[in-house]
Amino acid sequence: MSSSAGESSKTIVLISGANQGVGFEIVKKLSEDPNFHILMGTRSLSNGQAAISSLPDGVVVEPIELDVTSDPSIAAAADVVASKYGRLDVLINNAGIGPYAFPAEASTRERFTRIFSTNVTGAACLTDAFIPLLQKSSQPRIIFVSSGVGSLTLTLDPSRAGVDAPAYKASKAAMNMLMATYATKLTEEKWRVNSCTPRLSATAFTKGVGRDPSIGAIIACRLATGEVGGTGGFWDNEGTIAW
């Protein structure tokens, strides 16, 4: 382990898919707290460095190469964190792809396969790889950045406008089940495992539709800091929401 005494005393947070969108807003908010050391998961280190260069002077964020669809990439990231810090305190599963990532002619099978590979399988593989390091934390937290469109209750509500994105919606419902499975598996008192939704936020992911992504990032940050949340909940900025 090669971390400095200062770093080892901080809360170590890894955020996947964090060089843009809501993930980057989470980075910005958490990096304002000097008690946190942020690991920015990014598929491209150059893209991560470019994002970090836009942060205010004096803000320290560490990029870490991470592609959640690649087992070797996940293993390499875990090795880096293990060698430098010996533990992880907070894992935020934010990386994901949505319905706009495909050309109009993409088949149903292609959409489901790619979306589930990233949003569900990728989150599961990343979580499994980091549980040994999270176990070494005194207050381990796992956060799954889900979506309200993954709520069965809200989807079945006839008063709400539907979203024609079955693969994405199903992946977020599956992510919530994934969270619930980990919450029932990690039963030591110290663990906190939750899902949250930033709601529709204006990012490249949504083609600029939605509210300011900095607002969407708030609930993930509150769960990361322990300000809110027991374990096994599905949250937005206003509180818990229906499954």
Roughly how many Å is the radius of gyration? Answer: 17 Å
Beta-sheet strand percentage?
Answer: 5-15%
Mean pLDDT: 90
Q: How many individual helices?
A: 9
Query: Uncertain segments of ≥5 residues (pLDDT<50)?
Result: 1-5
Order of helices and strands: HEHEHEHEHEHHEHHEE
Summarize the amount of helix as a percent range. 40-55%
What global shape is seen?
Answer: globular
User: Main beta sheet: strand number and arrangement?
Assistant: 8 strands, mixed
CATH class, named Alpha Beta
Keywords:
243 residues; alpha/beta; Rossmann fold; 8-stranded mixed β-sheet; disordered N terminus; Fungal_SecMetab_SDRs; oxidoreductase activity; NAD(P)-bd_dom_sf; SDR_fam
Provide structural commentary.
- By secondary structure, the chain is α/β, with parallel strands linked by helices.
- It has one domain: NAD(P)-binding Rossmann-like Domain (Rossmann fold), CATH 3.40.50.720.
- Helices cover 42% and strands 15% of the residues.
- The chain has 9 helices and 8 strands.
- It has helices at residues 5-8, 21-31, 45-53, 71-84, 108-134, 152-155, 166-185, 213-216, 218-225, and strands at residues 11-15, 36-42, 61-65, 90-93, 141-145, 192-196, 234-236, 239-240.
- It has an 8-stranded mixed β-sheet, sandwiched between helices.
- The relative contact order is 0.15.
